[in-house]
Amino acid sequence: MLKSVVSRALTSLTVLFATTVATVAQTAAEYPSRRITVVLPYPGGGIVDVVTRIVMDKLGENWKQTITVDPKPGANGNIAWDQVARAEPDGYTWTFFGTGTIANPRMQPGLRWSEKSFVAIGAAVWAPSVVVVHPSLAANTMAEFIAYAKAHPGELNWANPGVGTSQHFNSAMLINAAKLKMVEVAYKGQPSGIADLMANRVQMALVSIGLAAEHIKAGTLKPLAVLGKTRSPLLPGVPTMTEAGYPEVNFVAWYGYAAPKDTPRPIVEKIVAGINTTLMDSKVRMALEGQGLQIVDPMTATELDALVAADTEKYGEVITEQQIRIGN
């Protein structure tokens, strides 16, 4: 009797498992069958918005499906990430994955989400940044800037485009490494900080090369050093931070995308493949490289998981060492 009951139970479980696998496989095969929404944690017009629209426009064209980009800035990006973390894990709601996705939960304990609430679905670009100052500042190199800042403690302002962004971390590391005393001014994204820098309300910022290049060319911003493994083709005359003598500040962030954690693996892999194919398109590459970005080589879903794990460890150490907290 007992053996019969156990046998029937096992048979039922086997049938249920097979049915579930078949359903997931069919769903993945039909995916995407309706509109996809990408909820961004940063304002429209910023570099994340620009990159996302370039990639998603082409991906939507390839898939013959609408992909809507929906910027929802606020609460240091937590509004967007919280919304997507709680979204249905069906592959139709995505978000941006970057430094802040890892950093925010460590800087603000008590959030309902963390990087573990998501699964990475694509890495698009490496995002070098450049240290820029107001043209009136009496400094043309990093060494001259550091000397000037040390001679004028507490007199210079620096723009923080968002707590937990790569620009925030790298700026804090530079200021600490050089033992500078500067005043932090917080912004909700890079564009407003850049505007205030050009107006000389702040004197230094670390910004995405794509957002700064035209202002540097116009002479309204002065570049000092690039955060990147090599010099930027858009700013060939500007040394890297390593060349300038601060290799420990030379972290290069990457921009990618994520979906809720329980999104079926076959759908995740289909999205990863779709983004990889999109990034091979010559027009997409040209548009992204025109923003001073470097295309990420194709990565599998498993390789993306490993990249997230490595960055989680790296940024976790920075946050602990620097004692960075939301509101500081």
Task: Write structural notes for this entry.
- It is a single chain.
- About 2% of the residues have low confidence.
- It contains eleven helices and eleven strands.
- It has 328 residues and is an alpha/beta fold.
- The protein folds into two domains: 162 residues, D-Maltodextrin-Binding Protein, domain 2; 121 residues, D-Maltodextrin-Binding Protein, domain 2 (3-Layer(aba) Sandwich), CATH 3.40.190.
- α2 packs across α9 and α4 crosses α11.
- It is 45% helix and 18% strand.
- β6, α6 and β7 form a beta-alpha-beta unit.
- It has a six-stranded mixed β-sheet with strand order 2-1-3-10-4-11, sandwiched between helices. The protein has a five-stranded mixed β-sheet with strand order 7-6-8-5-9, with helices on both faces.
- The radius of gyration is 22 Å and the shape is globular.
